[in-house]
Design brief:
There is one protein chain. The chain is α/β, with parallel strands linked by helices. The protein is 37% helix and 14% strand. It contains twelve helices and 14 strands. The protein has helices at residues 23-35, 43-56, 67-77, 94-102, 121-127, 147-154, 208-218, 241-252, 254-272, 304-313, 345-353, 365-383, and strands spanning 60-64, 85-89, 106-110, 132-138, 160-164, 172-173, 176-177, 184-188, 201-205, 279-280, 287-288, 294-297, 319-320, 354-357. The strands form three sheets. It has a seven-stranded mixed sheet with strand order 1-9-8-5-4-2-3, sandwiched between helices. A four-stranded antiparallel sheet has the order 10-12-14-13. It is globular and about 70 Å long. 51% of the residues are buried. Bound molecules: pyridoxal-5'-phosphate (PLP). Pyridoxal-5'-phosphate binds at residues 66-68, 92-93, 95-96, 138, 164, 166-167, 188, 190, 201.
Length: 384
C-alpha cells in the first residue's frame, strides 16, 4: 500500500504517524459491508475480541467504541465513584486522568521513573491511602511499566491494577504481553496506534464476572434475559462490525506491523547513538518494548520549540511530549493532592525536553537517516 510519505525531495513530508492499511483490510471491510452487518452485531466483533485477547494471552476481550470508553467502562465495572482515589502517572495522555473524573473519583498524580518513563512504584507507595481503589499503569510510548514492583507495593490491599496499554500493543513485561499482566488491560485502536480500527478500544481481563459486567454496561446495561429491563445506568460504548473487520485484518498482520516499527526504532537508536546528549526511548532489561513513537530527549538549554519549527520547515513532523496532568487547568486542584509524593519532577523534565519523531511504518532507512540528520542539525542550530 502506498503511503503519505512524499519521496520527492522538494515536497518531502514525514508525518508523525500513518496507518498501514493493506488489501486484507479492504477485503474484510468490504465483506462486512456486503454482509449487511454494519452495526454492533456481527461475527467480526467476536472474532476480533477473541483474537486480540488470545494475542495478549488474556481470557476475555470486550471491544468498545474507543480507548477512552474502554478505560471508562473498566472503572465503571470496578464500581469506582466519589470518595475513591485512583493513582495515575502524571505523564500520560489526558484520557487516563479524565476517566477517573468521569466516575467522580479523584485522580492522584504521581511521578514517573527516569529509566522507563512509566509510573514510579515508589511514588505509588507514598501516595496510597485507605481510599485508594485503583492504580492505572500506562505503558508510555510502548515501554511497559514496572508491573511486578507495582504488585509488590499494592500487596494484599484491595486495589485494582489497571493497565493503560493504548500505546503498547505487543510489548512484553518479563515475557508476558502487556494488557494481560494487571487485573484489567485496556487498549486503543485509534488511527495512529499500533493497530487500528479507525476508532476503537478493548478491555481485557481474566475475570469472568468483570468481563460480563463490562459487556453489560457497554450495551445500555440491558438485562441479558429481559429486553428493555435496565437495572442501572449503562452506556452505548459498542464497536461496530465494520471497525472490527478492519481490526481483524490488522490483527492478522500485527507481527509485521510491530516488526516494521521495531526496525525504525533500531535505525533511530543506531543513528542517534553518536549524539551523547540526545536520549532515545528507554529500554529496561526486563522489558520488550514496541515503538509506538520514537522519542528524543533534547539536551537541556536547547529550545525545543525552535527545533520543532526548524524540522517542520524541512518536512519533518514532530510532537512535544504530553503536558503532565498536574499542569492542566482542570487538574490544578489535584495538584494539592500531590501529597508526600511531591512534585513529579521527572515527568516535568521529560515533558519539557521530549519530542516524538515520525514513526510511520512506511519509513525506510534513508528516511530515518534524513530525519536524524535534520534533527541533529536543528539541535546544533538551536544551541546557537
Ligand atoms: C490513545 C490513548 C488513549 C485513548 O484512546 P482513544 O482511542 O483515543 O480514546 C488513552 N490512553 C493513552 C495512554 C493513549 O495513548
Amino acid at each position: 500500500m502506498s503511503n503519505n510519505v512524499e519521496k520527492n525531495a522538494a515536497k518531502r513530508f514525514y508525518p508523525i504517524a500513518a496507518p498501514d492499511i493493506g488489501d486484507l483490510e479492504a477485503q474484510y471491510v468490504t465483506d462486512a459491508v456486503r454482509s449487511g452487518w454494519v452495526s454492533s452485531l456481527g461475527s467480526y466483533i467476536l472474532e476480533f475480541e477473541r483474537g486480540f485477547a488470545e494475542f495478549c494471552g488474556s481470557k476475555y476481550g470486550i471491544a468498545t467504541s474507543n480507548g477512552t470508553t474502554a478505560l471508562h467502562l473498566a472503572l465503571e465495572a470496578l464500581r469506582l465513584g466519589p470518595g475513591d482515589e485512583v493513582i495515575v502517572p502524571s505523564l500520560t495522555f489526558v484520557a487516563t486522568a479524565n476517566v477517573v473524573t468521569y466516575v467522580g473519583a479523584t485522580p492522584v498524580f504521581v511521578d514517573v521513573e527516569a529509566d522507563t518513563w512509566c509510573i514510579d512504584p515508589l511514588c505509588v507507595e507514598r501516595a496510597l491511602t485507605p481510599r485508594t481503589r485503583a492504580v492505572i499503569a500506562v505503558h508510555l510510548y510502548g515501554h511497559p511499566a514496572n508491573m511486578d514492583a507495582l504488585r509488590a507495593v499494592i500487596g494484599t490491599r484491595d486495589i485494582a491494577l489497571i493497565e493503560d496499554a493504548a500505546e503498547a500493543h505487543g510489548a512484553r513485561h518479563r515475557g508476558h504481553r502487556v494488557g494481560s499482566v494487571g487485573d484489567i488491560g485496556v487498549f486503543s485502536f485509534y488511527g495512529n496506534k499500533i493497530i487500528t480500527t479507525g476508532e476503537g478500544g478493548i478491555i481485557l481481563t481474566e475475570d469472568a464476572r468483570l468481563a460480563e459486567r463490562c459487556s453489560f454496561l457497554r450495551d445500555h446495561a440491558m438485562s441479558p434475559t429481559r429486553r428493555y429491563w435496565h437495572p442501572e445506568v449503562g452506556f452505548n460504548y459498542r464497536i461496530t462490525n465494520l471497525q472490527a473487520a478492519l481490526g481483524l485484518a490488522q490483527l492478522r498482520r500485527i507481527d509485521e506491523l510491530i516488526a516494521k516499527r521495531d526496525r525504525i526504532g533500531r535505525w533511530y537508536r543506531d543513528m542517534l547513538a553518536t549524539q551523547a546528549d540526545v536520549a532515545f526511548n528507554p529500554q529496561a532489561p526486563w522489558a520488550s518494548t514496541v515503538f509506538w513513537l520514537a522519542c528524543a530527549l533534547l539536551p537541556e538549554r536547547v529550545d525545543r520549540t525552535a527545533v520543532m519549527q526548524q524540522l517542520k520547515a524541512e518536512g519533518v513532523d514532530t510532537r512535544p511530549f504530553f503536558v503532565p496532568m498536574h499542569r492542566l487547568p482542570m487538574y490544578e486542584r489535584a495538584r494539592m493532592v500531590l501529597r508526600a509524593t511531591g512534585q513529579p519532577a521527572v515527568a516535568d523534565a521529560l515533558a519539557e525536553q521530549g519530542i516524538n519523531l515520525p514513526t510511520a511504518p512506511s519509513l525506510g532507512q534513508d528516511d530515518v537517516a534524513y530525519i536524524t540528520e535534520r534533527l541533529v542539525a536543528a539541535i546544533s542550530r538551536a544551541r546557537g
